Amino acid sequence: MLSSPQLLLNSVLLQIIVASVRPGRGGIYVARWFEEIARRHGAFEVEFVDLAEVALPLLDEAAHPRLQKYTMDHTKAWSAIVSRADAFAFVTPEYDFSTPASLTNAIQYLVSEWAYKPACFVSYGGMAAGTRGVQMTKLLASAVRMMPIPETVAIQFYDQYLDREAGTFEPGERPAKAAAAMLDELLRWAGALKGLRE
To answer: Looking at the DSSP assignment, which residues form a beta bridge with residue 141?
Structure first.
């Protein structure tokens, strides 16, 4: 989808956040597939954020995150990354019917940096396609005043679309259409919430 010139002038910084940090993870391929769709959409400035590269330790700040009295360099760096975003797309599996620990930890490091920004989800897995983990993550997101939008992309049995040797992920037309529709909705929410942040 090509956006209007007005939308491009007021571009929205979308961070695509890869939740899984496990060796051999498939999520990095799913995220790159979604990144292409987001860039083609045209209304977003896209930033790719890989939690494996961010490499946050288990939360190690003494003060509550709402106070923003950060003492660790990794927290200050993470705060700067999240602060500059206008919207988030979390690419995530589910672990034991829940949110990956890496994503829980990343969210709980901060509070105000997430606030009044919309979030969408691209999930992947087997039969459940990561959807139970997304539901749990939406609770976490809401607690720090993110706005998880209803639209999601959930890809069942994602391995069948993944060619690790070629480094490609091609789930077909239906997920791509769902992703584009989700981005349309995310853009609406980003515009609506901008005033609250200002």
So the answer is: none
Q: Look up the pTM and report it.
A: 0.93
Neighbours of 120 (CB within 10 A): 26
Picking from 95, 75, 131, the residue whose alpha carbon sits closest to that of residue 21 is: 95
* pLDDT tens, the chain, 198 aa long: 333 334 444 689 999 999 999 999 999 999 999 999 999 999 999 999 999 999 999 999 999 999 999 999 999 999 999 999 999 999 999 999 999 999 999 999 999 999 999 999 999 999 999 999 999 999 999 999 999 999 999 999 999 999 999 999 999 999 999 999 999 999 999 999 999 988
Token couple for 182: 């989700």
Alpha carbon 43 to chain centroid, angstroms: 17
Domains, the chain, in order of start with CATH, read 5-197 (3.40.50.360)
Q: 131-143 and 101-108 helices cross at what angle (nearest 10)?
A: 10
Alpha-carbon gap, residue 45 to 2, rounded angstroms: 13
